Amino acid sequence: MNVRLSISVILMAVSALSCKAQTPERPNVLVIIADDLGWNDVGFHSKSATTPHLDRFAKEGIELQRFYTYAVCSPARAGLLTGQMPRRFGITHVVGPQQPGLPRDVATLPETFRAAGYRTSLIGKWHLGKARGPSDSGFDHFYGFMGAEIDYFKHTAIRSEQTDWQRNGKTVVEEGYSTDLLADEAVRLLQEQAKGRPFYMQVAFNAPHIPLAAPESFVEKHKNGGGLYAAVIDAMDSAIGRILAELDRQKLRDNTLVVFFSDNGADLRLSRSTPLSRGKDTIYEGGIHTPCVIRWPGRVAAGATSKQPVSVQDLFPTLAGAAGLKLPT
Q1: How confident is the model at residue 8, as a pLDDT?
Q2: Residue 169 and residue 159: Cα distance in Å, rounded?
Q3: Is residue 166 classed as helix, strand or coil in its secondary structure?
């Protein structure tokens, strides 16, 4: 891992850091990931998108306008967790349920944070194979699903129709809309967070991945424009708003570095990324160039933008560097 890919790559190099001295308190880190959210699916890129909470969030941080991931989700998630090109591990496309996926001998981002005393949690999607799961990869707590996609209300895998909803390795049967349940879990953990102990939290929504479904209130809201796809995104935006509001309530906002991005571009059956070409499953701009915003009050200039090219695997050394952690060798 190139240790020079540090916080300076994304933040200092784009002149977005404030001049304030860093606080000695280690920052919390919250990473929020959307699933198949395209370039034009956020209000700060398109007036037709309904994402008021993300729009406000973008004004409070720096938007990385040349942020790149991968054409599908498994490589993007592997890049985030390892800080390396996922093809080094043979992860070049979607990892199937019986495929090994992420090797057990590769150091991960949550392992790095946990070794430094952070409480680590993954809430939401794993989708990195069966060789190792979240608990084997540095996460103290896991609540979510292991595969590619689930039914939003039944929490079943689409291909097998088996329940894919877990809490720390044990299948649980719960009622509720997955987006809301994931936000509820994040809020609960923030409320229970021990004072003086920093956290690394990764919230990986399944929205707006197919098969689309949303609570009736959001469906009704968008029935005359945007349809079900817009309803799913609006519901996710509302859930993100609740998580960010809880940071404020717990007085964690100022010392929490928050990253939001989408794992890949939009499904072309649902959304277009104009002026970017094509979408998910392609290596054109619309497939790998996704929305990304970083907020760190007092460290990152609010309302800033950067055209510095950044890849998803850069986030590992960047976040570790922001916390002053030693990178694995």
Answers
A1: 52
A2: 20
A3: strand
Residue among 322, 262, 321, 213 at smallest CA distance from 68: 262
pLDDT tens digits along 160-197: 899 999 999 999 999 999 999 999 999 999 999 988 89
The angle at the Cα of 136, spanning 131 to 142, to the nearest 5 degrees, equals 110
Q: Which residues contact 139 (CB under 8 A, 6 or more apart)?
A: 110, 120, 121, 122, 202
Question: Residue 11: its pLDDT value, please?
Answer: 53
Average pLDDT over residues 285-311: 97
Paired sense of beta strands 62-64 and 67-68, if any: unpaired
All structural domains of the chain: 27-118+139-267 (3.40.720.10)
Indicate if the pLDDT at residue 53 is higher than 80. Answer: yes
Q: Which helix (H) or strand (E) holds 141?
A: strand 141-145
Q: Which residues of 232-257 are buried (b: 16+ CB within 10 A; e: fewer)?
A: bbbbbbbbbbebbebbeebebbebbb
Model-level pTM? 0.94
Give the residue among 320, 290, 35 at the shortest CA–CA distance from 182. Answer: 35
Does 19 have pLDDT greater than 50?
A: no
